[in-house]
Amino acid sequence: MLALSRTALRPGIRAIALKALLEGEVTWIARYERQWTDKRYGQTRRVPVLDRRAVTRPVPLDVLIRQGATDRSVPVRRTAASFLAEHAARLGDIKPLMDLFDGEKNPSVRWYIAYLAERGEAAPQGGSER
To answer: How many CA atoms lie within 13 Å of 80's alpha carbon, on the beta-carbon side?
Structure first.
C-alpha cells in the first residue's frame, strides 16, 4: 500500500492509498440492501453496506504527511492537509508539518492550514494567506 501511495500513476489512487495509510483502515461498499421508505406503497431505496479492514502503517504519521505534502497532485496534498487538520491534537508539534504547505497555490489545501493557524495550533509562515 505504501508503494501504491507513492508511485501510482493516477493521483486519485495515490490519494486513496495515502488516506488508507493515514487512517489505518480501508472502507468500501460491500453490497447494497433494500430499506423501506414507505411500506404502504411498497417503496424502498438501495442503501450501501460498508465493509472495512485494518491496514498496518509501515511508517510514522509525520512521514506520510510529508509524503503527501510534497506530492505534485492537489488531491494528494489535500488528503494530507485534511488529515493534519483533523488529527492535529494527537500529532504533537505540527509546526514543521504546516511549514511544508507554505506557498500552496490551491485554495482548498490553504484552507486547512489557515484553519489550523486560526485554531492556534501553530502559526504558518508566509505563503498560506490568499
So the answer is: 28
Residues in Cβ contact with 105 at an 8 Å cutoff, skipping those fewer than 6 apart:
none
DSSP 12-77: HHHHHHHHHHHHTEEEEEEEEEEEEEETTTTEEEEEEEEEEEE---SS-HHHHHHHHHT-SSHHHH
- Residue 122, pLDDT > 80, answer no
pLDDT, tens digit, 9 for 90 and up, residues 11-35: 999 999 999 999 999 999 999 999 9
Q: How far is CA 2 from the centre of its chain?
A: 15
Nine cell digits for residue 79:
488528503
SS3 130: coil
| Contact assessment for residue 21 and residue 2, using Cβ atoms and an 8 Å cutoff | yes
Up-side HSE of residue 15: CA atoms within 13 Å toward CB?
A: 14
What are phi and psi for residue 90, nearest 5 degrees? -90, -5
Whether 102 contacts 114, CB under 8 Å: no
